[in-house]
Amino acid sequence: MASYKVFFALAIISSLVALCCAHKSPTGNAQEFVKFSYSGSLGPENWASLSSAFELCGKGSHQSPINIDCKAAVHDSSLQCLKRDYVAANATLVNNGFNIGLVYTSEAGSLVISGKKYSLKHLRWHSPSEHTLDGERFPFEVNLIHESKDGNVAIVSILYRYGNADPFLLQITDKLDQLAKASCSEDQEARISAGLVHSRSLKLSTRKYYRYVGSLTTPPCTENVVWNILSEVRTLSKEQGDALRAPLVGDYQKNSRPIQPLNGRVVQVYDKVTNVKTN
Ligand SMILES: *[C@@H]1O[C@H](CO)[C@@H](O)[C@H](O)[C@H]1NC(C)=O
């Protein structure tokens, strides 16, 4: 009897220690926190007017997301297979109120594009997908955000439809449930340690991808982001989708920015099969 009480006391203490609320800074720096949303007066059409730091959300000409017209994508023989090497790393799950993310707290591996190394820093989920393929929108999209030493950003993006469970998410489902129970105030974000996370499953099947230069899809909409959208759509279970949305409140359960104009940009495609045939 007494040992049960001790067990429960410890369980409560450890969950209190693991979960915490921290002040928000979605722009990634010490700037004052500015609230934005996905509809109404704080919605995407008005992001640029919410803060001078968000100017590019309105004025930028290379914005994301976009629709990918698969047939119009240009084969470029200089593109190479996405060289990624991910390792198991410790991570923290974060609900910043706008989306659910996973921030690696130890070295998680890297992606090499044109000889330049980008380190995997964090993941971010959006629902429904922000990018569309031939106009088709999917239930989820995950952005694998990589940064180079000189501050450039490269994102690998994976689209999901409902089906079999996603092996990556299986590792963090119970943490997502705990995150959903966290009650932090509006100007705070909830954080919970996810422990050691294996990212190997995220680097499979990159035989074909679409590349273009765009922006972050949330304010401050910073440009010069190298996007790599995997052609193969993966699956997650309905339960996993619900678990990813549950920690977000109301409006933010749908956190997809509208499609942005291409403004003359060309989307390139790398297809291993075609590249082998023509080389
Ligand atoms: C992850 O964190 C644990 C506990 O702090 C530590 O023992 C372990 O070495 C860390 N692993 C990595 C890969 O950093």
UniProtKB/TrEMBL annotation:
Residues 34-271 form the Alpha-carbonic anhydrase domain. Gene3D superfamilies: Alpha carbonic anhydrase. Keywords: Signal. GO terms for molecular function: carbonate dehydratase activity; zinc ion binding. InterPro entries: Alpha_CA_prokaryot-like, CA_dom, CA_dom_sf, Carbonic_anhydrase_a-class. It comes from the Eukaryota. Residues 1-22 form the signal peptide. The keyword Signal applies. GO terms for biological process: one-carbon metabolic process. This is Alpha-carbonic anhydrase domain-containing protein.
